[in-house]
Specification:
The complex is a heterotrimer. By secondary structure, chain A is of the alpha/beta class. Chain A has a single domain, classed as 3-Layer(aba) Sandwich (Rossmann fold), CATH 3.40.50. Chain A contains 13 helices and 12 strands. Chain A has a 6-stranded mixed β-sheet, with helices on both faces. A 4-stranded antiparallel β-sheet of chain A has the order 2-1-4-5, with helices on one face. Helix content of chain B is 74%, strand content 4%. Chain B has a two-stranded antiparallel sheet with strand order 1-4. Chain B has a two-stranded antiparallel sheet with strand order 2-3. Chain B starts with a helix and ends in a 15-residue tail after the last helix. By secondary structure, chain C is mainly α. In chain C, 65% of the residues lie in helices and 1% in strands. Chain C is built from 17 helices and 2 strands. Classes of the chains: A alpha/beta, B mainly alpha, C mainly alpha.
């Protein structure tokens, strides 16, 4: 019933407002360069948290540590009570974190549909033996029956293979995701041939198809015009309304202020401020960081 | 297994290994330079080496140099063979680049295509010597091994303990090392060499800075080819033989040497080549010569597992001036 | 994509306008493949059946204009059934290697190693005169001439190939592409050298005779001269393997392979266990290679090390790439051309390798996406070319 999970907040989703992901004093060094310096913050269940900061502040690096691309030098990250720092990317995804990329990284030679299905496959189990022999039979629930009457009759009597069940569920879910982000009209085109805005949305659809609890968006509005940005803000709110928690990296302050519940501000790999948008916007350190005032003035 | 055989002749084996290894190292330079600049395994490079050995044979035949020749003739023939082999190999390498690789580069083809094309070029070159030339000129072309009698007479220069050091060994090792030092100086000190390093580091920025990429690539093929030609001469001096498909196994060894040292790294090629030569000779002593090739590959796999970028790391671009 | 043809609400949307691209020589492409895959099952099924029947009829093809494709028209020509058999064997190799190279994007230059493992497994366990069976018979006091029956050799060969695929893949699949190429090449060489040097097990360069044939429906059904029977056997195996490989391609596994080929890091973040699926690709490729090898050895009734030289590995890669990497039909076409043409034109036997080399370079330089590229690959090429042209225009 993968579809259902996406329809409404799952009952076991925990109380809105407690910590879903905790970044606990994370430091990351590359040789002599300190990319993240004892960064600590938490993401609360059901909120839209904005992670902002000037270029090179360490926002994307922070994403990469969370999704298993890098292992922190010290400190740890806990997700839903489980330590995830240092884990493999696909395991972290299985726990419920999905992301998009700043520089779009789709599977260019696969269709939009196939891209999303790769995401949906994250919740499926069929591997080589299952796909080859299709022996594992499952008794389908009524809504999982094939549309074709004859096939449905067979399925009722003999059950259907897990492969077929998952393929059908995956296709339905993928199409739903494509519709949800508004690009279903070009579902069967190669990802590489889609227009830029569609590619950005396709990344979101692909990430959503993995059924995450936490969705991390890395500058999803980069290169968008104001109208597209407004659409995107609506989409982000819709995602939250489905019961997901959203972490948003964004440059556009207007978009960030309009959509986020709280903000964390990074500069030079350090957290310099945290709080509700209006509060953060008045913080002199943040203003200094964005207006580029001398460091010592900001630190004073 | 016979470790005594290894221990007893350790000095001699090491010297043998260094001799072989310096030939591998010279050929490895061609792989390493092309890889450093183009991120491409030039599989046709082994045949560039093979052309060098045949050129040497041609020069000896034309000059009539053989083991009976007098000293001045020996020197003249060897030097002529050196220059001719370097030129011939360099031209073949350049031809491969112009005919096969450049059109593919213009089409931005993926690496696999380059590889298949290289294998095709390799086959064409092998068959030219194995069949095509035989149709027109008869022997010595064809599929049989050919004797290439070097005019240099092997004699012992000096003996240290049990180890006899021959003039041929000294000539080969010194020759190879000199060529490599010259190449290293060229790449690290000259203006053209700076261009090579720039393209190796970042082709796009180098192009913006006015480095002519096509010229750098041609230069790399010429230099690598010339080194393989010299290796061809040294090989014939050591083994007195060539064959239409001789490049294949030497090419694989040299490529292994390049990866061992860290592909893309000039000094790595030297280290990798010498090490591979020594390992091989030791392994032949301990097991039997049948096992030399297996040992070489096992060493390669081990190095890649524990030090995936080779012993010295991969950096044609980062080589210090 | 059989399941995609079910009437799901949205799969009726027109795929895209991309099929309109022009084909070779600027002619509009006929899109036979497109039309075929869009046709309903009752149209496709008879086409497939007719195709299969024709393939089974090929050994007896004697109707004049078509009979020119036979290789035994001139005296000294190759036995037609034998050539067909070899073509099918190499087609099996090509679909196996296509999984590794074309789908998962792993460059394996030592594929001959798996072919050799298949051939040697059936020889070592199935031949009464192999040192292995002699040793087993000796140890357990079995009768002279005892050997493992062919039917039991098949699972042994496949199991050994799967195991060697995993053993080779597990430590090396983390390596970067070009390193993987050289390590696999080393593996192929090591297998050959082992088969030559470990004389006590493999008889060394003397080879092993008496490799068993499959169970025969009648006396001498699978004898050396009945090449058509061998061809039918191999063809049946090929059809089964195509069916199974298609099932993999059209499943979660096939999508995972493509995703890894396209962008391994992004695939991992989307929950694809890249290492596991790469290992599967390797193991499946190995099993297919071994199947081809064991059929080949069984028909020859003899194996020896020089039959597994490294250049065959290059030949295999060439089949996949010339035909069109990532496309099973293309890979099989490549196998066909590379095996068939040299046999058909045997008069020019000495020129064959040279012509082959020239053809390889020419095909790659003029048509790098292969003769029948998968549509994905064709698009990729068109776009990469455009990118290159734009970059040149900017400079």
């Amino acid at each position: 019933m993968p579809e259902q999970t996406m329809e409404s907040p799952t009952p076991e989703a925990g109380t809105v407002g407690d910590a879903l992901l905790v970044v606990d004093d994370v430091t990351l060094r590359f040789g002599g360069v300190v990319a993240l310096n004892e960064v600590a913050f938490e993401i609360r269940r059901g909120e839209i948290l904005g992670l902002i900061g000037p270029n090179g502040a360490g926002k994307t690096t922070c994403f990469n540590v969370m999704t298993g691309v890098y292992t922190p030098t010290s400190g740890e990250i806990r997700f839903d009570g489980t330590r995830i720092s240092g884990g493999k990317p696909h395991r972290i995804n299985a726990l419920g974190i999905a992301r998009t990329f700043q520089n779009i990284r789709l599977f260019p030679e696969m269709t939009a549909m196939e891209n999303v299905m790769v995401g949906a496959d994250a919740r499926h189990k069929t591997s080589v033996p299952g796909a080859l022999f299709r022996l594992a039979r499952v008794r389908p629930k009524p809504h999982e029956l094939p549309d074709n009457q004859i096939k449905a009759g067979f399925a009722k009597v003999f059950g259907i293979s897990r492969h077929a069940l998952e393929e059908r569920a995956g296709r339905r879910k993928s199409m739903e995701m494509l519709r949800f982000v508004g690009i279903a009209d070009r579902a069967h085109e190669l990802a590489r041939n889609l227009p830029y805005g569609y590619q950005r949305r396709l990344e979101i659809a692909r990430a959503l198809a993995t059924e995450p609890k936490l969705l991390c968006l890395d500058e999803p509005a980069a290169g968008f015009n104001p109208a597209e940005k407004a659409d995107l803000m609506n989409l982000i709110r819709k995602i939250r309304d489905r019961g997901l928690t959203v972490l948003l990296i964004e440059h556009d302050m207007k978009l960030v202020m309009g959509v986020t519940d709280r903000l964390v501000v990074l500069e030079f790999g350090q957290k310099i401020a945290e709080g509700v948008p209006a509060e953060v916007a008045r913080n002199p350190k943040v203003i200094a960081a964005y207006l580029g005032e001398p460091d010592d003035a900001a630190q004073a | 297994m016979d470790f005594n055989a290894l221990i007893d002749g350790l000095g001699g084996h090491t010297l043998d290994g260094l001799t072989r290894g310096s030939i591998y190292a010279l050929v490895a330079l061609g792989y390493t330079m092309v890889y450093g600049v183009l991120r491409l395994i030039n599989f046709a490079h082994s045949e560039v080496f093979m052309v060098g050995t045949w050129t040497v044979l041609g020069v000896y035949t034309v000059l009539g140099a053989d083991s009976e020749s007098a000293m001045p003739m020996v020197i003249f023939a060897t030097l002529t063979a050196l220059v001719a082999a370097a030129l011939a190999s360099a031209s073949v390498a350049l031809a491969v680049e112009r005919i096969a690789y450049r059109p593919l580069r213009k089409k931005n083809a993926p690496p696999l295509i380059f590889l298949i094309t290289a294998i095709g070029c390799s086959l064409v070159l092998v068959e030219i010597f194995g069949h095509v030339l035989k149709v027109f000129f008869g022997a010595p072309f064809g599929r049989a091994p050919v004797n290439v009698p070097s005019p240099i007479q092997t004699h012992t220069l000096l003996t240290i303990g049990d180890v006899r050091i021959t003039n041929v060994q000294v000539f080969i090792i010194l020759g190879a090392v000199l060529m490599m030092v010259a190449l290293d100086l060229f790449v690290n000190r000259s203006r053209l060499g700076r261009g090579v390093r720039a393209v190796a580091q970042d082709p796009d920025t180098a192009a913006l800075m006015g480095v002519n990429q096509d010229r750098v690539i041609m230069l790399v093929f010429i230099l690598g080819g010339a080194m393989a030609g010299v290796a061809g001469l040294l090989f014939t001096i050591n083994f007195d033989i060539t064959k239409f498909d001789i490049g294949f196994i030497i090419g694989i060894k040299a490529f292994t040497a390049a990866v061992l040292g860290g592909i893309g790294n000039l000094r790595g090629a030297l280290v990798g080549g010498l090490l591979l030569g020594i390992v091989e000779v030791y392994a032949s002593a301990v097991f039997s010569s049948n096992w030399a090739d297996v040992t070489a590959f096992i060493v390669l796999v081990l190095v890649l597992m524990f030090r995936p970028t080779g012993l010295l790391g991969e950096s044609l671009g980062k080589a210090r001036a | 994509m059989s399941d995609l043809n079910e009437p799901t609400p949205d799969s009726t949307t027109d795929p895209s306008p991309q099929g309109r691209a022009t084909g070779a020589f600027g002619l509009p492409r006929l899109n036979i493949a497109d039309r075929y895959s869009k046709a309903p099952l009752w149209v496709r099924m008879p086409i497939v059946l007719i195709g299969i029947s024709f393939a089974f009829y090929l050994p007896f093809l004697n109707i004049l204009p078509f009979a020119y494709i036979r290789t035994d028209l001139t005296s000294g020509g190759s036995d037609w059934g034998g050539v067909l058999f070899l073509i099918v064997i190499y087609m099996i190799v090509a679909i196996g290697l296509n999984v590794v190279i074309g789908l998962a994007g792993l460059l394996d230059l030592g594929y001959i190693g798996f072919y050799a493992i298949g051939a040697y497994s059936v020889a070592l366990f199935g031949s009464p005169s192999s040192p292995v069976t002699e040793m087993i018979a000796d140890k357990f006091g079995l009768s002279e001439g005892w050997a493992v029956p062919f039917v039991a050799c098949v699972p042994i060969a496949i199991a050994l190939a799967l195991a060697s695929g995993v053993l080779l893949g597990a430590p090396t699949l983390r390596l970067r592409g070009d390193y993987l190429a050289i390590v696999t090449m080393g593996f192929g060489e090591i297998i050959r050298i082992l088969s030559r040097n470990v004389t006590s097990v493999t008889n060394g360069s003397a080879g092993i005779i008496g490799v068993p044939s499959p169970p025969e429906p009648s006396e001498n059904f699978f004898s050396a001269i009945e090449t058509a029977h061998w061809y039918w056997l191999a063809l049946s195996v090929l059809i089964l393997l195509i069916f199974l490989t298609r099932r993999l391609e059209d499943s979660r596994v096939g999508r995972a392979w493509l995703a890894i080929r396209e962008d391994e890091d992004a695939a991992a973040v989307m929950g694809v266990n890249a290492f596991k699926f790469k290992l599967w690709a390797f193991a499946i490729g190995a099993a297919l290679g071994a199947t081809a090898g064991l059929l080949f050895a069984s028909k020859q009734a003899y194996v020896e090390p020089t039959g597994f030289a490294l250049n065959l590995s290059f030949l295999f890669v060439a089949m996949v790439v010339i035909g069109g990497s990532g496309n099973m039909v293309g890979a099989m076409l490549g196998a066909f051309l590379i095996t068939y043409l040299p046999e058909r034109f045997r008069e020019f036997q000495d020129w064959r390798p040279f012509a082959f080399g020239v053809a390889m370079v020419a095909v790659m330089v003029l048509r790098p996406q292969g003769l029948i590229p998968s549509r994905r690959r064709a698009r990729e090429f068109a776009d990469r070319k455009n990118e290159a042209e734009e970059a040149a225009a900017d400079a």
